[in-house]
User: Fold this.
Amino acid sequence: MTHLWHPFADMSAVERDGELVLTRGVQASVFDSEGTEYLDLTAGLWFANVGHGRTEIADAMAAQAGRLAAYSTFGDMANEPVLALADRLAAIAPVADSKVFFTSGGSDAVDTAAKLVRRYWSLRGHPQRTTIITRERAYHGMHWGGTAMGGIEPNRSGYGDWGADIAHVEWDSVADLEQVIDERVAGTVAAFFCEPVMGAGGVHFAGEQYLQQARELCRDRGVLWVSDEVITGFGRTGEWFASSRFGLEPDLVLSAKGLTSGYAPMGAVLVAPSVTEPFWDGTAGAWRHGYTYSGHAVSAAAGLANLDIIEREGLVARVRDLEPVLTETLASLVDHPLVAEVRSGVGLLAAVQVDPNVVKRDVSAVPTIVSALRSRGVLTRPLVDGSLQVSPPFVVTPEELKRFVVSCWEALDTVLTTR
Ligand SMILES: Cc1ncc(COP(=O)(O)O)c(C=O)c1O
Assistant:
């Protein structure tokens, strides 16, 4: 009987069926305690950008832990790797001269940003600007604020009223965003939070035109733009940040995951100069916000070693090269009778959508496909809309992607023939 309470899990099923215990990883593969190899099609949970088993990162972490594992960065305190990492991030941020606020992960970054935009408007003399606008299908982490902000209903329901100033808009409509800003919550909007490509909601991309028009609208109405790049950051879309690829010039960028490729927990909020101003010119005094592990030295060392690898091996360019390969390789899956569509085309991000009618009729169909894939040596997971997540490490090979397609076709067949 397990004593581990697994996140996002039906523990009665875990107790009944057992756990998959992973022991090591190499490149785009992980191995379980029996020695079975699996292709890691999800990069852990969208984070293992440089792949698994990088001893270079482990060595950098060990060396830092032996010197100084961690110390608070509150007030004027700092450590060497966190200073270096802040400068590295500022150099690749979508907006020049951004400042970097470190967190323990993505959900911390979301809540940090939600507080920051409200504090900013208060300092600017607009304390009524407290509403945060987010999109249907959005995922912004699992803290209180991020859960309230999310647009995935099953994640929000069952807790009562969230009591937060949140307005949800259609995920792909600039007209709806405009209506909400100008009418529904007129005069109270602090910021619009936007995943350039939605991840957990099912890998949905509203298009470059949507992003640019929504950005222009927010700029025009004085609404701060927050790009949630916890998934899309650090090369996933073929640029350091999707915001740069689509020319969004965000006021804030939220990041985590690929910052360390998951070798240590860490997040970072990149803040453009227009927003940092009142915090740096003395207006704000001390901003009473931060976490014990904001700027954790071992995590920062992991981040630096991770960025070294991405740069040295040209992994961002590799994602650009693999983008059409992924699309072409997955395309044949739409011919399977159980597949409604394959969403791809932006970086190493894709989803194989199982026919929504099948998903609705038979809740076990997608989990069955996932488990048939697992027995064929491929690890993926179902997203909330009944699609399969495809977001491999950047070191994945075209042959491995082909192997997934063959296994996926077979796994889909198991459902087709048993129902
Ligand atoms: C877009 C987005 N924002 C925030 C988060 C939360 O990050 P974390 O799980 O590290 O708290 C995630 C996690 O998947 C995410 O995809």
User: Anything to note?
Assistant: The chain has two domains: 55-312, 315-418. Residues 315-418 form a domain with the Aspartate Aminotransferase, domain 1 fold (CATH 3.90.1150.10). The pocket of pyridoxal-5'-phosphate is lined by residues 46, 105-107, 110, 139-141, 195, 199-200, 228, 230-231, 256 (CB under 6 Å).
